[in-house]
Amino acid sequence: MKFGLAIPNCHGDFADIHLVAEVAYEAEQAGWDGFFVWDHIGDKWGDEVLDPWVMLAAMAMRTRRVRLGTMVTPVTRRRPWKLAREVATLDQLSTGRMILGVGSGGGIEYVNYHEPGETQTHGARMDEALELLSLLWSGERISYEGQYYQIENVRHLPRPIQQPRIPIWVGGVWPNKKPMRRAANWDGVCPIGKGVSMTEQMTPEQAHACFDYVRSQQTSGQASADYACVQWGIMDGKDRGHDAALASVYEEAGANWWIENLSWERGTLQELRPFIRQGPPVRA
C-alpha cells in the first residue's frame, strides 16, 4: 500500500502557494508517497483559487521523491494538446514523478465560463482527449481526426520521462459503471462513492466491488500491468494503530493506494500540518 495526500487548490490558505510548496516538502520528509491537488478554475467553494499546474511546479521544485499529480483534472475543460504539454513539462521538471488524475467534469465551471459541449458528450470527448494525450506523449509525429478533436502533422518533444506514457488514473462515481469501464483501459482508478461527502469514504465492501468490477473489464495484458486502485480515504490521525488497521482492511479489499482526502471541512491547511507531519501509519 502506498499513501498519498490530496488537497484543494481553492479556499482559504489552501490557495497560499508558498504554504502549499512548504507542506509538500514536509509531506515528503514525513514519508508520504504522493501529493495531489484538485483542479478547479472558478469554484462554488469560493473565489480563492490557485492554478494547479503552477502549484505542482512549485511542489516539484521543493521535493525529490514524492509522486505529484491532479485529483482530478476535468479533461473536457482543457485543450488536449495544451494539457499534454503542461503535464509532460511537469514530468520533466519532477524527473518522472507525475500522475494525471482525470474526470469528465461538469457544473458551474463549464456553465459560468460558457465552455463548449453538452454534458451528455463529456464522456466521448474525454475518451478522444485521453487517446490524444497518449499519442502526443509518444513523441512521434501524428495526425488525428476525431469527432471532437482534430490535429494535423504535429510532434511533441521532449517526451515525458515516463514511457510509454505518464500514468493516467480515471475518476468516477461508483456504482456508475461507464467511468469504471473507461478506467480499466488506463493506469488506475480513483473512485468516489455516490452520496459520499468530503469527510466520508466508501466502505471496504463498496471499494472491493468497484475494484473487482474494474479488473473484470480488463484484458489479460491489462490485468498483468501495474495498476493503481485508489481508496479516497479518511484517517483520524489520533490512533496510529487504528489507522494502520483501517488501511489494511482496504488493502484486503484491493486498494494499493490510499489517498487521504484533506479539505477545509477538516481544518485549514495550517491546522492540518501536524497530521501531515506524522506521515502515513504503515509502510509497504
UniProtKB/TrEMBL annotation:
Ranges where the Luciferase-like domain occurs? 1-176
UniProt KW Oxidoreductase keyword: yes
Specify one Pfam family.
Answer: Bac_luciferase
Q: Which domain of life is it from?
A: Bacteria
Q: Which InterPro entries match?
A: Luciferase-like_dom, Luciferase-like_sf, SsuD_RutA_monooxygenase
Keywords (alphabetical) are:
Flavoprotein, FMN, Monooxygenase, Oxidoreductase
Record has Cell inner membrane as a keyword: no
Q: Which protein are we looking at?
A: Luciferase-like domain-containing protein
